[in-house]
């Protein structure tokens, strides 16, 4: 199995696990504070991953350039903006719609990467991207829309527009991260990805931490009072991001994000076996479509 595929599958698992744990923090702190803990507690975990990798595989860190730092800053900001837009979409009681349309990120990333990075691939891979995104949309909207007219109506809802904006921001984030890993020198793409993770988490802590200090100073003590659960969220976030970044360093962004749609399968499995919720027929159909799309992506690679 190619390293980028394994890394992407692990990224989906870690992200689902982190999201489940982060639910516990929502009742204890604000949205911004809950986001900061991902980066704040992710920095030492990222450093530990870099140290462990160097210990096992050897090598050395690359000297960063100003262009590299700019790409890192853009990637970190893109993730922050995308997360905030997604949360804003939930405010319109459109959790499913906002989430569904944010998953168009894979298609948006494919187009942006083709234009700016020259990343092209075969027709089969393009079909796979479309199928996997379609399966995700089906999973999110099944039972909520019954016709193409309903789909069109859902698309112009504020929650959908914010979701599309979130997908665009996440796509730009992924492309900036790939550009950053290609900007620094070094023969080991995985090490470059891990180094980039630490730099971006530091910048994100500075950016969103400064905003938190300026607007919600009273929330800062909670970052440290909840250190036990916050540290777990930060660790899982860092591990998930390390896997995403590794995927971006080894393969085109659109392919990584398309395979990353399997995240929704982990969500369904978590719901079925840990929360003991029954799976609907639409869940099974949608899951099979997502898997089929991922297979097409891999065959078209």
From TrEMBL:
Q: What Pfam families would the database entry show?
A: EamA
**Carries keyword Nucleus?**
no
Give the residues annotated as coiled coil: none
Q: Which residues cross the membrane?
A: 38-56, 68-90, 110-139, 160-181, 233-252, 258-275, 282-300
InterPro entries in the record:
EamA_dom, EmrE-like
Question: What name does UniProt use for this protein?
Answer: EamA family transporter
NAD as a keyword? no
Which species is the source of this protein? Roseomonas nitratireducens
Q: Which residues form the EamA domain?
A: 160-298
Name the UniProt key words of this record, in alphabetical order. Membrane, Transmembrane, Transmembrane helix
